[in-house]
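Hey team,

Filing this mostly as a record. A colleague (T.K.) asked me to run one chain through the structure pipeline before their review meeting, and I want the input and output archived in the tracker in case anyone asks later how it was produced. No errors, nothing strange. Just documentation.

Input sequence:
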Amino acid sequence: MSFPSLLLLAFIAGATIIIGLAVGRLKHFNPTARSALTMLATGILVFLLVDILSSAMGQATSSLPKNAPEGAALVALIVVGFLFGFVSLVMFENRWIKSQQAVTSERLSLMIALGIGLHNLSEGLAIGQSYLQGEIGLSVTLIVGFALHNATEGFGIVGPMVRQGVRPSWGSLLLLAVVGGGPTFVGTLLGSLWTSAFLSVFVLALAGGALLYVIKELFAHVRKDANQVAIMASVVLGFALGWGTDLIASL
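Output structure:
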């Protein structure tokens, strides 16, 4: 596979996020359906949180027996990246509150897109590094799996707006697609130039912290909804959906 073909496929893998984002343009959602969709998205984000932290810790623990200082540095990067990814968004939210500006559904969607964008950057790095190491088959498998993931991640981004009955413009959806899906292409380009376990682990941890924040916010939005059974079942379904696309990527 040529390098331009790799970049084209990476672009497509990131662009599939618009499929899930387009749900935000649909009309006639009742409140329960909106909440269920939000929690479906939350379940996907919970899976992503578990998946990326497992990947980061896997890289760190595999280095410990071979090179203890490097492994310890990777563990430290995980802690620092996760802390920064979470606390920075909390501080960002507090600044809005102090200035008497509510965290609107549009802003929350943008935060989610940023968190997913960091995650997709790490996915792109994995694609590029696999290609650089000559593992073309693995690169293609990762691209297919990440394309499926990105299609479902779009639900996670527009979930807050759908629940609040906000119908975003196509321009807003395009911006969210660039923020959330664009890093897949950027990561692939960077990953094909050099390999760095430190960069990969830090980006994964940073994304994990950001995702933890948005998961907290999404749960808070549906805390008082009446049909909690259906809503929590949607979380499990979303987790299963994320897990299923990951299994497809590993086949």
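Quick notes for T.K.: DSSP finds nine helices and no strands in the chain. The CA atoms of residues 61 and 71 lie 6 Å apart.
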